[in-house]
TrEMBL record:
L-fucose isomerase C-terminal domain boundaries: 391-555
Residue span(s) of domain L-fucose isomerase N-terminal-2: 173-355
Source species of the chain: Xylanibacter rarus
Protein name: L-fucose isomerase
Gene3D superfamilies for this protein: 3.40.50.1070, L-fucose Isomerase, Chain A, domain 2 (3.40.275.10), L-fucose/L-arabinose isomerase, C-terminal (3.20.14.10)
Transmembrane segments: none
UniProt keyword terms in alphabetical order: Carbohydrate metabolism, Cytoplasm, Fucose metabolism, Isomerase, Manganese, Metal-binding
Amino acid sequence: MKNYPKIGIRPIIDGRQGGIRESLEEKTMNLAKAVAELISNNLKNGDGTPVECVIADGTIGRVAEAARCAEKFENNGVGATISVTSCWCYGSETMDMHPYWPKAVWGFNGTERPGAVYLAAVLAAHAQKGLPAFGIYGHDVQDLDDNTIPADVAEKILRWARAAQAVATMRGKSYLSIGNVAMGIAGSIANADFMQEYLGIRAEQVDMTEILRRMDEGIYDKDEYKKAIEWVKKYCVPNEGEDIGNRDVKKKNREEKDADWEFVTKMTMIFRDLMTGNEKLLEAGFKEEALGHNAIAGGFQGQRQWTDYKPNGDFSEAMLNTSFDWNGIREPYVFATENDTCNGLTMLLEHLLTNRSAIFSDVRTYWSPEAVKRVTGKELSGRASGGIIHLINSGATTLDGTGQCCDADGNPVMKHHWELTDKEVEACLSATTWYPANRDYFRGGGFSSNFLSKGGMPVTMARLNLVKGLGPVLQLAEGWTVDIDPEIHKVIDKRTDPTWPTTWFVPRLCDKPAFKDVYSVMNNWGANHGAIIYGHIGADLITLASMLRIPVCMHNVDDDKVFRPATWNAFGMDKEGADFRACANFGPLYK
């Protein structure tokens, strides 16, 4: 992206002049500046630049000033607003009325002026007008001359801002389906109405034959291809694994494997060009192809019409999802294998909240301690002692998922791309083996990545599901990647496909029914795939989902971390039931 949305800061004030307004001007603007500084110092866009804030030219005491603020925000690319005040103000006159901008209000907790009274009044106005807003009110009273932001207030402002920036960033973009439905997977059915009404993005689609056309007609950057294939030969071909997945009759010879490497490298470039365009194609005379589809996420059908005939998309999908390629370190793309749009869009939400690469996996198998003992003769231990979930797919997983990067304390981590070093890039590549594709699955060949994610990484697994009559629902599980005894891994990994990448996952358990044990998490998962991101971001996902009016049906986040629009409180005292009722009442954000 070249232009990211900005967050608008609205300093709200008591409009009565002759003593009251004048005494509050400096205080109110200082609060606005403190919020802008908090956001810009702590949140980044996908390219690593700070999230920018735009502050109204002056305080807002009456409707005319609110209108001037709205005009400035429209002209400066604002996509969400937070109002701040320490005093009483005129609620319905000063509130943000934009129907699509996520909104928050911080009412300063001070006794000298009734900021909390305005907060309550304006939140009631937002509820009455059907424009839900998040209410932020500090736990402890502050002095009027104290312009610091307490920790509890800062936490809520940043949680709201992360989600609000995600909403604004994807608005107006596209999801690109390359192909259609893979093997009857319902998540592959791109639901254009859902994308438009809930996420503000359009559904774009091209047939898979477009890949062949561009290859046959040379519609790709030839100079980049030379650079790319040299990089592949340096870092990937030497890590090519022995063809252990195929019978002799199905094994490809060296010449055929080299042709596959050339093919999948070109395919990766073409996938990317289809998503975002490429100015180099314009220079070559391909004006239409140079445009791309303005896609912020995408997916490739592959199976089976493609993979029965041509090399699979695993290499291309893995590299697009990874934070680097032959052009160096960069922001990862969001790209779904099997064109599972529901999982790809979940990956998108996670990426927009964290700016990190997301893992795409089958939620393949729950291994109980008893089953592990029966099959391997060994016992699971440590965090894995209560059972594990095998996350594995055919090789489209981001290489960031190897866990080869480390934080300052030596713990494995999936870093932001701007934090990566060349040494860490090489470590991720070295930890990845590229096995010739299993041609019982992929008749056309290709390559599948194989690695074992390091244990000890905090992660959140999530999934969007579409339910007839209900609409979209989100489920999530915070937990950790875990290390298990190498002998246990060796035995049970071979029972699936040892040429594919594995992540062993253990969710955090609690007293909620779906999280009473590891089996229950697996048993309550709503689809065959999951999107896994580094960090425990369940609370942020819940906040984001509420902005989009998507209820959350399953989570293991502590109740005191759940932050939704204030009017959700009007829909009952059970938080999850209230979430469903509120989302149904207000309907999709863009409908």
